[in-house]
Amino acid sequence: MNEIILCKYGEIVLKGANKKFFEDMLCRQLKDRAKKHGHFEITRAQSTIYIKPLDGDCDLDGMFDSAMHTFGIAAVSRAAVCEKNLDDIKRVAREYIPDFLENCRTFKVEGKRSDKHFPYNSMDLSQIVGGEILSAMNGKIKVDVHHPDVVVKVEIRETAAYLHAGQFKGAGGMPIGSAGNGLVLLSGGIDSPVAAYMMSKRGLHIEAVHFESFPYTSELAREKVIDLARKVAAYSGDIYVHVISLTHIQEEIARNCEEDYFTLLLRRYMMTIASKVAEKHKCRCLITGESLGQVASQTLEAITVTENAASLPILRPCIGMDKEEIVTIARKIDTFEKSIEPYEDCCTVFTPRHPRTKPELSKVLVQEQKLDFDALVEEALATEYTIKAEAEI
Ligand code: ATP
Ligand code: MG
User: Fold this and answer.
1) Is the distance from the beta carbon of residue 10 to the nearest atom of ligand 1 less than 6 Å?
2) Which residue, 149, 152, 280, 291, could crosslink 318 as a Cys pair with Cβ 3.0–4.6 Å?
3) Could you give the CA distance from residue 228 to residue 219 in angstroms, rounded to a whole number?
4) 306 in ligand 1 pocket by Cβ < 6 Å?
């Protein structure tokens, strides 16, 4: 049986005159992903992308998984290719479709004929194919045209006919890169990998900056962050993680400033440094996992103070989400178990006992002026080194 993968676009179909730009981008990305899985031909027609294996060595399951992780695709299905004659269509209906209906009680068939020269119309096709499936399954399944468990589709296109049963919901969103580049501040926590995934889903190409504070934070903490980036990369594509040391900055803050302000001061350094890293790597925004009110440094007042130190817009996709909602996404993208591994983050060393929850910028600046801010920023930037987190899918 010749099998192919069909991908339906999501939001792209609404893009009017720009549609082709997005379609080209999406096809390029699928071609790129396909390289890992063998020789495939990728074409498109009528808001559908066809992924066809060109030889027996192709890993169709791997390619299917890749397509399911590709933003811009709303639905993915496997389809059998048949010749455009009724005998072959019936044969495929009997031999190919029943496996997809194993655990279902009801189905219906939808016929679609884009080649109007084909002698049977959509209604005929639905009835003929439905009859074949019913007899092949020996009464184990019934037709329900209103609320079927599975919809079987027969599509008669220009060059071939396709039969498929059951679509899987794709990753949705917009093709990566269609919204430009963004730099995510990636910690080892639960929220920032989710934030990276969410903005990548909206079409941002993602790079990451991670702040460490060796020896207060460990080698293992850094590896954890790279592992998290790799998991996000299954959706976003490979992620360059720029690692920056904040050790000296944290020591200087701890030595010179009032304890209540430690976290706020540190976060202002993070925002300034991240803005500079972003500019260097041509990223036009910062992304954080902040959620309003989650911790002392995420009250509106604290966010105002830290945002003031950034020179780029900060996107915070988790800002209005409960922890539970964030965790649901973390589980879906398989970052949760990794995120809860217990390693120190630079935010958890030198933490104040009584952090300010309603800080005033002027008072924070008084503390900040005790240090040579610019020199410390430059020194930290010089510690940058980059690790590529490669997608496994
Ligand atoms: P997360 O679960 O993402 O770590 P959090 O709830 O622990 O978030 P904070 O520690 O206050 O919250 O961090 C808020 C945001 O600041 C994080 O979501 C992340 O974007 C950024 N951030 C915090 N620590 C680091 C770090 N070590 N390196 C890079 N970014 C960081
Ligand atoms: Mg954290």
Assistant:
1) no
2) 291
3) 14
4) no
Q: Please name the helix (run of DSSP H) or strand (run of DSSP E) that holds residue 380, with its range, or none.
A: helix 373-381
Give the residue carrying structure tokens 């060595």. Answer: 57
Closest residue CA from atom 7 of ligand 1: 189
CA dist 268 to 185, 262, 275, Å?
13, 10, 11
Each residue's pLDDT expressed in tens, for the chain with a length of 393 residues? 899 999 999 888 888 888 999 999 999 999 999 999 999 999 998 889 999 999 999 999 999 999 999 999 999 999 999 999 999 999 999 999 999 999 999 999 999 998 899 999 999 999 999 999 999 999 899 999 999 999 999 999 988 999 999 899 999 999 999 999 999 999 999 999 999 999 999 999 999 999 999 999 999 999 999 999 999 999 999 999 999 999 999 999 999 999 999 999 999 999 999 999 999 999 999 999 999 999 889 999 999 999 999 999 999 999 999 999 999 999 999 999 999 999 888 888 889 999 999 999 999 999 999 999 999 999 999 999 999 999 988
Torsions phi, psi for 332 (to 5 deg): -60, -40
Whole-prediction pTM: 0.94
